[in-house]
Amino acid sequence: LPALHVFAIAFALEVSVGKTNTVMALNNSDVLLPCTFTTCIGFQDLVFTWYFNSTEMIYHGKIKSKASEPFLVGRNPRVEFVGSTTGKDNNISILLKNVEFSDAGKYTCHVKNPKEKNAQHNATIFLTVVQKMVETDNTVTLIIVGVVGGLIGLLILFMLIKRVVLFIVKKTQDGKKECLVSSSGNDNTENGLAGSKAEQKAPPKA
């Protein structure tokens, strides 16, 4: 049973609008709404439909087979088919002309394949219409990066100075220890004797 289940999934109809499902367009410009479909067993009399905000049909087409291009069934006058299904990809993208602010919204690409027991699948893309494209101001970002970089640089410099100072202090202390050891050695071996004067024995009485 699991093998049959995997086999069934392999033949499933898939519809895609690309890596991102959002598109931005300038007011009064033309915008491409991408859509492709895949099917492992091919298609026959396939039907595809584009909807605006789930209810308004803006393009309706049919494709007899892989050897033929789609033919128009119905469309909005401002929508033009720009895809191709005889090439490598089954491209059913459309071009929306002279977009207006009222065109902003959800566009759904729906596909139905009778050869797969009328399997259906769809993908959605969201269109945003703007008056002008806003250039990203990177000044603030550059300032933040500069400040952070400067702080890291100062921290590294501080750590290096600290290491040098500690090294010098350690060397100075080591030098003092050597002096103390040598001087204490001189005290205990005064006049070449093994110990101090206090430790020397008194001469024997007569």
In short:
With 206 residues, this protein is of the alpha+beta class. Helix content is 29%, strand content 31%.
Any overview of this molecule?
- With 206 residues, the protein is an alpha+beta fold.
- The chain has a domain at 22-126: Immunoglobulins (Immunoglobulin-like, Sandwich).
- It has helices spanning 2-10, 139-188; strands spanning 14-16, 22-26, 31-33, 36-38, 46-52, 56-63, 71-75, 79-81, 90-91, 94-96, 105-113, 119-130.
- The strands form three sheets. Strands 2-12-11-5-6-7 form a six-stranded mixed sheet, with no helix packed on it. A three-stranded antiparallel sheet has the order 1-4-9, with no helix packed on it. Strands 3-10-8 form a three-stranded antiparallel sheet, with no helix packed on it.
- A hairpin with a 5-residue loop joins β11 (105-113) and β12 (119-130).
- The longest helix has 50 residues, at 139-188.
- Residues 2-10, 187-193 and 195-199 have low confidence and may be disordered.
- This is Sodium channel subunit beta-4.
- The chain crosses the membrane at residues 140-161.
Question: Would you identify the CATH architecture of the domain at 22-126?
Answer: Sandwich
Portion of residues within helices: 25-40%
> CATH topology of the domain at 22-126, which one?
Immunoglobulin-like
Main pleated-sheet profile: 6 strands, mixed
Q: How many helical elements?
A: 2
Mean pLDDT: 81
Low-confidence stretches: 2-10, 187-193, 195-199
Nearest-angstrom radius of gyration? 42 Å
Strand content: 25-35%
What is the element string, with H for helices and E for strands? HEEEEEEEEEEEEH
Which structural class do the helices and strands define?
A: alpha+beta
Distance between the termini: 122 Å
Number of strands: 12
What is the overall silhouette? elongated
Q: Could you name the CATH class of the domain at 22-126? A: Mainly Beta
In the CATH hierarchy, what is the superfamily of the domain at 22-126?
Immunoglobulins
> What is the topology, as strand order, of the major beta sheet?
2-12-11-5-6-7
Keywords: Disulfide bond, Glycoprotein, Immunoglobulin domain, Ion channel, Ion transport, Membrane, Signal, Transmembrane, Transmembrane helix, Transport
Subcellular location: Membrane
GO molecular function, one term: sodium channel regulator activity
GO cellular component, one term: voltage-gated sodium channel complex
